[in-house]
Amino acid sequence: MPIIVNLDVMMAKRKISLNELSRRVGITVSNLSILKNSKAKAIRFSTLEALCRELKCQPGDILEYVEEDKDSITP
């Protein structure tokens, strides 16, 4: 997937646990874990806003676009 979620990196930089971030943002630990492990298919802007507010960062600090290698894509 060309969108990389760097939530774990930002959490480590801010020294905040999954449980604490979940409590502050108001999302379940399981949903936050799905996002953190790049298993989510989508994210609401309100969730992204809350994460950025609590982690004191920009959306680009959490989400990153990486182009896929066209040779590695199977038809």
TrEMBL record:
<feature type="domain" description="HTH cro/C1-type">
    <location>
        <begin position="7"/>
        <end position="62"/>
    </location>
</feature>
<dbReference type="InterPro" id="IPR001387">
    <property type="entry name" value="Cro/C1-type_HTH"/>
</dbReference>
<dbReference type="GO" id="GO:0003677">
    <property type="term" value="F:DNA binding"/>
</dbReference>
<dbReference type="InterPro" id="IPR010982">
    <property type="entry name" value="Lambda_DNA-bd_dom_sf"/>
</dbReference>
<protein>
    <submittedName>
        <fullName>Transcriptional regulator, XRE family</fullName>
    </submittedName>
</protein>
<dbReference type="Pfam" id="PF13443">
    <property type="entry name" value="HTH_26"/>
</dbReference>
